[in-house]
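User: Design a sequence. Structure:
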């Protein structure tokens, strides 16, 4: 009987799936089962998957990652379900760490990790995105309020009792975060383990980043939080982050008004000084990882992130209000 069921759902993942599965096969921990779910791929992903396991569930039509992972969990034999994205590279000791965490914490229901601080893709946006994710999770509360399928383990009986992921999410979105909300509402404990890290092999571009951050995350997450009547004070939605988003947007408005009246530019400094102070550790982290030029560009991109996140929050708020 395997001690861990590794579940990977994929769709058209030929760019990364080979490296992902090779990393799993190189695990020190070998008492695991690998269950793959092909969400109606149209590329060569299924052929790659077949080289690593015959436990492949092929969906006849695209159902989304939530439904795909649920189908795999229904066939899992182990008491620990470990979800990994198809563009994530585990380390040889990753499965050992996951199993050890559950063994050492018998009352723990789920655990999540983070990306490491050395992303394989070296273009600016990929480094910015993955390093920001690493920093935010490393600074987050260990008593997590969300779940994460990029690198997340959960006891099978707990997953089953919660009826798995919400299959109404038909595209990659916040199905894992939504499960985390239900887990916390049910009194379950989720641990954010700082030394459980994996590599993210995805290459980010500006269109893919905006599409993921705005449509896949910010808008549905806003609707989810409003439906629960509570905004989290953790990770990238903690209070200082919300205040930073407001001040950066205000600075942008003042910049536009400054074209009409020069003295509006004076207010920009007053807005951005608190933002720099609240995020000083992040911006110093950018500097340590990539030097001054990278830190300057990453800081500017972080401010752009605040602007489009604030806009997305407004869109999510309107979507929630009109859906009532």
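Assistant: Done.
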């Amino acid at each position: 009987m395997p001690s861990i069921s590794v579940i990977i759902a994929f769709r058209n993942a030929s760019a990364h799936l080979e490296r992902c599965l090779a990393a799993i096969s190189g695990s020190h921990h070998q008492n695991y089962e690998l269950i793959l779910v092909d969400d109606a791929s149209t590329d060569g992903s299924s052929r790659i998957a077949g080289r690593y396991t015959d436990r492949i569930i092929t969906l006849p039509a695209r159902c989304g990652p939530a439904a795909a992972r649920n189908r795999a969990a229904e066939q899992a034999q182990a008491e620990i379900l470990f979800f990994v994205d198809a563009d994530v590279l585990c380390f040889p000791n990753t499965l050992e760490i996951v199993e050890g965490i559950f063994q050492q914490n018998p009352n723990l229901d789920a655990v999540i990790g983070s990306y490491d601080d050395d992303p394989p893709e070296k273009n600016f946006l990929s480094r910015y995105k993955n390093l920001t994710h690493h920093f935010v999770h490393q600074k987050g509360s260990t008593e997590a309020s969300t779940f994460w399928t990029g690198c997340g383990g959960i006891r099978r009986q707990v997953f089953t009792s919660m009826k798995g992921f919400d299959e109404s999410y038909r595209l990659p979105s916040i199905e894992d975060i939504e499960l985390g909300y239900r887990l916390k509402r049910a009194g379950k404990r989720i641990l954010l383990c700082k030394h459980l890290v994996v590599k993210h092999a995805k290459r980010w571009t500006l269109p893919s980043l905006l599409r993921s951050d705005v449509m896949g995350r910010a808008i549905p997450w806003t609707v989810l939080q409003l439906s629960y009547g509570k905004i989290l004070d953790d990770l990238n939605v903690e209070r200082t982050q919300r205040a930073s988003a407001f001040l950066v947007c205000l600075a942008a408005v003042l910049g536009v008004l400054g074209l009409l009246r020069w003295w509006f530019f004076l207010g920009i400094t007053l807005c951005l000084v608190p933002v720099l102070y609240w995020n000083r550790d992040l911006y110093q982290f950018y500097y340590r990882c990539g030097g001054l030029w990278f830190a300057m560009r990453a800081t500017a991109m972080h401010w752009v992130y605040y602007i489009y996140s604030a806009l997305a929050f407004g869109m999510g708020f309107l979507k929630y209000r009109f859906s009532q």
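Residues 26 and 92 are 6 Å apart (CA to CA). The mean pLDDT is 93.
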